[in-house]
Amino acid sequence: MKKFKAGLFGLGVVGSGVYKALQQNEKYGVSIEKIAVKNIEKERNLELPNGILTTEADEILDNTDLDIIIELINDPKEAFSIVKKAFERGKSVVSANKKMVALYHKEILELREKHGVKFFYEGAVCGSVPILRLLDQHYKSDQVKSIKAIANGTCNFILSKMVGENQDYATALKDAQELGFAELDPYSDVSGEDTRFKLSIMIYHAFGVFVHPNEIPLHGINHLDEHIKDFAQKHHLKLKLVGEAQQQNGKITAKVEPQLVNESHDFYTIENEYNGIVVDAEFSGEQFVKGKGAGSFPTALAVLSNLKDLKYDLAIAKSLVKKEIEFSNKSKREIYFISGFENEISGLTILDQEEKYYIVNTDFNRLINLKQEHLNLYWVKIPQDIFNKIKNHEVLI
Amino acid sequence: MKKFKAGLFGLGVVGSGVYKALQQNEKYGVSIEKIAVKNIEKERNLELPNGILTTEADEILDNTDLDIIIELINDPKEAFSIVKKAFERGKSVVSANKKMVALYHKEILELREKHGVKFFYEGAVCGSVPILRLLDQHYKSDQVKSIKAIANGTCNFILSKMVGENQDYATALKDAQELGFAELDPYSDVSGEDTRFKLSIMIYHAFGVFVHPNEIPLHGINHLDEHIKDFAQKHHLKLKLVGEAQQQNGKITAKVEPQLVNESHDFYTIENEYNGIVVDAEFSGEQFVKGKGAGSFPTALAVLSNLKDLKYDLAIAKSLVKKEIEFSNKSKREIYFISGFENEISGLTILDQEEKYYIVNTDFNRLINLKQEHLNLYWVKIPQDIFNKIKNHEVLI
């Protein structure tokens, strides 16, 4: 089988993992010939051949000897420009850049068609969890009804600490930062934005519809206070940030928000940096996949498996855009725990209340509106079955 | 894209599901032109075109119009003969016959190579759970260290009833039979044989080694009595039949036996007809997949996804046989709960004991030997971490 020559963009955590694996093991049949980095002089814990590093993107892109581009930089705009140029030069690309894929999804896939190249990006969604592969291949013969994901390890770590170890939000965040699980600026993670990028990518592969991340309503975990923590502990529930999308009557709805889960839910055992996805489909019913959502080697593995796909000339079933299916940002009424308000909130269907929180029956959009007046307001979805159980056990406060 | 014409062998539970799906939905691009059955006159809950049924296998195999054979009969020997003939006539085959694949694995894959055809069999292992796809594609870039599976819904149903609802083995089996979860002759399921077929197939895809099912030591669930049930309940543990294989220093070991799991284990939430598999690999770490392991539509979906693979000419990374890796039937010492003996058993390292059971440190082969003298002896593995927890909590009886 032909040996591929690749150019690598970015030599960070994932890039180094990919480089080391390809270097150490002939079996991959891919050799990295040139690596584009911002700073050649930077100290790196890697043995590199002389002259392999460059700061000039075009030195890689214009090199007709290279078949494949592995794109692993951070900046989405710069990454998109690299991918575009690679496609124009007939090179296939493997990427792990969730932000780039989410923001330019439609354009990239159109360009891929136009130039007849391949573009794989398993590493962009949930690290080593092969969810895009499954949606593209296994589920292409089924009809996906819904997809629910814990897709952000930082949030999951913080929520594990808060409910499991009784920490407050600020301490849990600080711990996460000290352990390297959270960035110094945690906004993208705790706001739910990162989960939304991944959800937007999965929606295309699950339903054949492009939904720009900005169209998906989101609510993060950065306003949670002790009331929800106490509530969760009291009822033996765990708190998870969940991105979910479902298809019903030709309409897709999606959102990202914190949610309570009980011990019978697959998400209950997902702790710390693990990610997990439940796919519900017509024929297969509910399936659950769980694995490491981030980290050097787990994400590198996703990249390596995509390189193998190129090598075996894997023609993945294309997610044809389904024009008959539309995205709708209407939200349906569900049961929510709400807290973080200063004064009473009027005009809500209250199912139960304490001084500092309500259990209400309302919808996401209404909560978003309320948040404009009550800036610290936060909400956590209580799935119907959990609410029923709490009620039947008569332990609802 | 070309529309494929297929011949179907077997119109049972899975066959009917596949036929209905292909009939109702153009998107699959596969039409079934002829169906071989044993009895044409049998009443079927299906609308079938006149003349589509035949009792003559050759009417399908010799028809040069048909590109694909879908093999869904029960008898492994007959199925193998059909597959062989199909290959000889240049036809690719999709099958869900675990017993045939497990018993003739090496021969079939050699014949596949010889005749340059394709042969997919996702439905043979754990119904809708896409484990072969993942091992062939995703994990082909990783190094699998171990694979552990709950692969038999009948056993899982019985064990759920015994520990969760306090039934005895006989009642749980009877319930399973009445609900259609167990065959009238449950031997293949409760003896662990069925799990062993599936494990043997997975071993090839995980490690590149053919291990005949008969080489894998097994111990079923058909001798469990109330002592293990009480023990599991007392310590909040669940009981599962687990097939497992690991690679260490170029040796593969494998076995099928009941095992205790606690609430932090992924298997804890697998109830009734669900199957689940934990794969531990070098780069990706531990991943877990869970889904419906049997049933008309879940298994049909596996078949349909394989038909899509043929349609998209999916060239799956081949599991080259690794000559440097050997199978070893040596077993290592582990911690076991043993019961079902009449008189005391001597010569064992006993960690704890009650009148009716011991907790011992020993190995599978030793237990197999002991069973020749003590016919009702049974054992259940207690993983080290669970044993430690029980000990630390000082609740060990």
In words, what does this structure look like?
- In chain A, helix 1 packs across helix 11, helix 3 runs parallel beside helix 4 and helix 4 packs parallel to helix 9.
- Chain A is globular.
- Chain A has 3 domains: 117 residues, 3-Layer(aba) Sandwich (Rossmann fold); 170 residues, Dihydrodipicolinate Reductase, domain 2 (2-Layer Sandwich); 59 residues, no CATH class.
- In chain A, the strands form 3 sheets. In chain A, strands 3-2-1-4-5-6 form a 6-stranded parallel sheet, with helices on both faces.
- In chain A, strand 1, helix 1 and strand 2 form a beta-alpha-beta unit.
- With 397 residues, chain A is an alpha/beta fold.
- Chain A has 13 helices and 16 strands.
- The first copy, chain A, is 36% helix and 23% strand.
- Chains A and B meet through helix 5, strand 11 and helix 11 of A and helix 5, strand 11 and helix 11 of B.
Core attributes:
homodimer, 397 residues, alpha/beta, Rossmann fold, 3 domains, six-stranded mixed sheet, 16 strands
